[in-house]
Design goal:
Elements: H1 16-23, H2 43-46, H3 51-56, E1 58-63, E2 66-67, E3 71-73, E4 80-81, H4 83-95, E5 98-103, H5 106-114, E6 120-121, E7 135-150, E8 167-171, H6 175-189, E9 196-200, H7 203-211, E10 217-221, H8 222-231, E11 236-239, E12 245-255, H9 261-273, H10 276-283
Parallel strand pairs: 1-5, 1-6, 8-9, 8-10
Antiparallel strand pairs: 2-3, 3-4, 7-10, 7-11, 7-12
């Protein structure tokens, strides 16, 4: 398995108009605005922050901002907004730190953390055993994979077994792309044609492939797929179950040996206990993915 991630946001086929709609630009109400949740510094958690980091005062957080509603670019064309941005800001406040979000390519975030280019990665990372070899994770959300297609003239896919012989789009470096590659071996073993997998550098490319007819079905994490379908006004639809397979935790990626794992975990516990965590998820309509227990360090289920 490659160092990957499950996740991303979108665009629509009627080209520029659809791309703006799915990415969240130009959408109404709270679809592109911050939850405005604020948190207070917790002295116990702040005392856990390593002295060098406390002196620096600001953490650089990497996110691939193409994955609404989790992380995407606001209508101003530069500000990163979404669930991860709101949660990151609140975590920083609890730790007595400022968090600066930096847009980065998804597949470059984990290597960047290992090279100490970033302090944290908050980009809808699925916590996997493979990724835990490179970075540590603090779990904060649960999601699975959903399939989606055109509402008119789309295809019916209910599970990975159904993708054999179909044209599938996924983002490069994601668990979804890995899953299709693994399933293709099973397709061949069963005497079926493998799926024609097309990978793209971001989720916008995935969705444009779908809406332009170059792909029959696309894959994304469940909160993202649901959000995209709602944003397109009936042009896309989910197929199969809301979570077709692979329910697993998201994790905040932390460089090994940085000393940040415990303060991040404890800051998240504070936000869960005081209700701010739930407020953020509810603002982005993804509260169904809230943790049902305490955040874990390296809680991969695969």
């Amino acid at each position: 398995m490659t160092i990957s991630i499950g996740r991303r946001a979108g665009a629509l086929a009627v080209a520029a108009l659809a791309a703006a709609a799915v990415a969240g630009c130009g959408s109404s109400d709270k679809s592109s605005t911050s939850s405005n949740v604020t948190a207070s510094e917790n002295s116990k958690v702040a005392a856990e922050v390593p002295a060098a980091i406390k002196k620096k005062g600001t953490l650089t957080v990497a996110a691939d901002a193409t994955y609404a509603p989790n992380e995407f670019i606001a209508p101003d064309g530069k500000t990163i907004v979404g669930m991860d941005a709101d949660l990151g800001k609140a975590l920083g406040q609890v730790m007595g730190l400022k968090l600066k979000f930096q847009n980065a390519t998804f597949e470059g975030i984990i290597p960047g953390l290992a090279a100490h280019k970033f302090d944290l990665g908050m980009s809808s990372f699925t916590d996997t055993k493979e990724r835990e070899k490179t970075v540590d994770f603090v779990t904060y959300f649960e999601a699975g994979t959903s399939f989606y297609t055109k509402a008119q003239g789309g295809t019916n896919v209910g599970s990975l077994a159904d993708i054999c012989g179909r044209k599938v789009a996924a983002e490069k470096g994601t668990t979804q792309a890995d899953d299709v590659t693994a399933q293709n071996k099973k397709c061949k073993a069963q005497g079926k044609s493998p799926a024609a997998l097309a990978v793209f550098p971001d989720q916008n490319g995935v969705n444009l492939a779908l809406t332009s007819g170059r792909a029959q079905v696309a894959m994304a994490d469940s909160p993202v797929a649901e959000y995209q379908v709602k944003q397109t006004g009936g042009q896309l639809k989910l197929v199969g179950s809301p979570i077709s397979y692979g329910r697993a935790p998201y994790g905040i990626a932390v460089p090994k040996g940085s000393g940040l794992t415990k303060p991040v975990q404890d800051a998240l516990k504070v936000l869960i206990d005081d209700g701010q965590y739930k407020k953020i998820l509810t603002h982005w309509n993804i509260e169904s993915g809230a943790l049902t227990g305490s955040p874990q360090v390296n809680g991969a289920t695969d």
